[in-house]
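Example 331.
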Amino acid sequence: MPEFVGIQNGKDAAAGIRRSASTRPAECNKSNYASKLGDICERRLVYWRTKGDRAIPPSDGLVGLWESAKLLTPIFLDRIFNPFGRKQTPAWEILEQERRPSDPLFLKLNIGLKVDGIRHVADATGRMRPYSIVEFKSMNGNLFGRIEDRDSLGMTYWAAKYPDQVLLGMLGCELPEHPGWLVIINRDCLYECKIIEIPFDMDRCERLLARAERINAHVTDGTLPRQICRPDICQNCPFLPICSPKLEADPEDAPLVMKPGEDDELHKLLADHVLLEGSRKEANAITKKLKGRLVPGQCLVSGPIVVNWKVHGKGWRMTVKDTTSEEQGAS
Ligand code: SF4
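Predicted structure in complex with iron/sulfur cluster:
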């Protein structure tokens, strides 16, 4: 149970979180966690297995968020979600919480998996039968409002991994016939949730299994996959200090010199980019001058050219359109 002892201000609250959270000393992951296998960086997955004890510890705030999710999810499930499911036709209920995989391949590939629950659905006789797997994820109201479907999970690299976790759950628990449920819970209001259905995808599962195999080989051989060198991902990576990826081009590095005709398509793309980049700069300079001459919100017509304005955020967005072709089409 949490022990918020002697809390008087924000600093002490952080200490309270540390004391109450079930934080264990940092250690290497003993298996390839299914919740992580879809990570954008394979090298990081190897680090979790071999250098997990050297990862930068998560902030108190992040630990507090994880602990809150652990406390809130059972409340959501027992008091809101399952009572709702029991009233549906056919009735359903989330059971077998924290079920481990039955597929022996997971043991062989050392994939650590515990699904949040199995959705059991009533058959014609009213008997509950295992139907599909369910994973619960909670997030703040702001992000919750922006998640609409599976694609929008890609807004953050950590949420982008969720569908892969569901897929591995379907495979591991041998329940691929019906789409798995990824249930997104609004942490600010537990009565709001969104269900994203994840249909089974054997190709994707095979790629994730192959990844687990590669990670095991790296762990055994003491090797590492290549770095992804992405500032947006690497800057927040707990292994940044030991990985030290190259996050900016070194002017001292010799460039790769392509021979004439080596890749005509790439050469044309580069040439087009240079051309359009020049036009874009010119267009921006003209737009700036125009904005200095026009009154925001005042639409204007000059021959076939029409200027319109739309409110955009706290300002105005201008559009300038040549209507010559429309006029010709109308005549
Ligand atoms: S620092 Fe970047 S390249 Fe290195 S493990 Fe982390 S995410 Fe991967």
